[in-house]
């Protein structure tokens, strides 16, 4: 069934690309997904996303390749194939054009080690104190969300997305005493340009929606997944310190391998508006 609005067509295509960007996405497939001509859809995509469809697919592939180089031991050849390049030479050329160095050099620069990771800790960080964490399995769930794109330290802009989500959820009677708020962190801000970093302000649904979300609100289904859970206490502005500790102490020990999924933050008491130093956030790092 065809969608009647440009926004709905954009949402359909964006969701498809985000799921299938590693595959061969040709013009015929794009037109099949969004029920619109490629030329017209490309204009809509550019207006709403500030990138053409082709630019978006290429950037997402290269950013994902950079993440693999940083966090995995996959070979450059395997990474090229994994992110959708059939020719490793074409991959190397495209990667160098974006990151200014070839993949092998990039890996040497960013592949984390314990000492280099420690260098990003704040002066007050105590690297000798072991981090408390637990291994958790989350059951599958469906979430309603709105996407923020931009710098992760622009907390005022992110707060506006949360306000929009809360208002929408209240208008549609989706808020109750069991409501769970969560954020998805989809990009590594040391790899992805700040203007393109994605953050999803979301709400777990306790029952299916009767109609499709309106406007820029979207639905997403999370499959069951294993996570390492950490706790952050205090304002969002200091969460970067917690993440620095996680990546300096825990990730660099090599005990666990990251899964290719977003990091999740559960906002346990943010909706109660406590003093900032009493905010509690659970950080879930996806692992294999």
User: SSE order in H/E notation?
Assistant: HHHHHHHHEEHEEEEHEE
Say what the CATH topology of the largest domain is.
Multidrug-efflux Transporter 1 Regulator Bmrr, Chain A
Oligomer: single chain
- Report the structural category: alpha+beta
Helix content: 25-40%
Mean pLDDT: 86
Q: So, CATH architecture of the largest domain?
A: Alpha-Beta Barrel
Q: Note the overall shape.
A: globular
Strand order of the largest sheet: 1-6-8-7-3-4-2-5
Q: In the CATH hierarchy, what is the class of the largest domain?
A: Alpha Beta
Number of domains: 2
Number of strands: 8
State the low-pLDDT regions, or none: 113-128
Question: Could you please describe the fold and organization of this structure?
Answer:
The protein is an alpha+beta fold and 288 residues long. The chain has 2 domains: 6-110, Arc Repressor Mutant, subunit A; 134-286, Multidrug-efflux Transporter 1 Regulator Bmrr, Chain A. It is built from 10 helices and 8 strands. The protein has an 8-stranded antiparallel sheet, with helices on one face. α1 crosses α3 and α4 (53-71) crosses α6 (88-99). The longest helix is centred in the first third of the chain and has 19 residues, at 53-71. The two termini are 38 Å apart. The model is unreliable at 113-128 (pLDDT under 50).
């Amino acid at each position: 069934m065809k969608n009647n609005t440009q926004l709905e067509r954009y949402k359909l295509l964006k969701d498809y690309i985000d799921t299938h960007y590693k595959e061969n996405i040709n013009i015929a497939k794009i037109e099949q997904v969004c029920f619109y001509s490629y030329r017209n859809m490309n204009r809509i995509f550019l207006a709403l996303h500030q990138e053409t469809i082709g630019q978006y697919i290429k950037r997402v592939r290269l950013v994902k390749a950079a993440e693999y180089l940083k966090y995995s031991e996959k070979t450059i050849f395997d990474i090229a194939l994994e992110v959708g390049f059939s020719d490793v030479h074409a991959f190397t050329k495209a990667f160098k054009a974006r990151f200014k160095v070839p993949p092998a050099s990039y890996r040497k620069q960013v592949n984390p080690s314990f000492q280099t990771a420690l260098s990003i800790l704040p002066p007050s960080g105590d690297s000798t104190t072991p981090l408390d964490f637990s291994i958790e399995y989350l059951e599958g769930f469906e979430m309603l969300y709105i996407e923020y794109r931009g710098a992760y330290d622009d907390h005022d802009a992110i707060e506006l997305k949360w306000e929009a989500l809360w208002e929408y959820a209240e208008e549609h009677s989706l808020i109750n005493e069991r409501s769970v708020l969560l954020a998805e962190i989809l990009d590594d801000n040391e790899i992805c340009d700040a203007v393109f970093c994605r953050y999803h302000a979301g709400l777990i649904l306790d029952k299916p929606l009767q109609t499709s979300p309106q406007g820029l609100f979207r639905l997403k289904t999370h499959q069951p997944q294993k996570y390492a859970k950490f706790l952050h206490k205090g304002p969002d502005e200091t969460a970067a310190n917690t993440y620095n500790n996680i990546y300096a102490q825990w990730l660099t020990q090599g005990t666990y391998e990251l899964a290719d999924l977003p990091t999740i933050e559960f906002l346990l008491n943010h909706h109660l508006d406590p003093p900032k130093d009493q905010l509690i956030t659970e950080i879930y790092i996806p692992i294999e």
